[in-house]
Amino acid sequence: MTRPLLCLLAIALFLSACVPIKPWVKPYQRNKLADPIMSFDHAPISSAYMHHVYQAREGARGAEGGSGGGCGCN
Description:
mainly alpha
């Protein structure tokens, strides 16, 4: 008797995970989350340039997840 009940409970639990959830953050609230203090780097433009220089010097263009292509379209 308990095995069918456990199976029914497990199925109900798995199906409840498929329910779409509305986003908790509204689009007009997202600007507060994009605070500069939350960034990983204090100077992102400078570090992106240094990363580009490193890739060009090492000949490892794109090996570390850098963006950009040869045609100039990012």
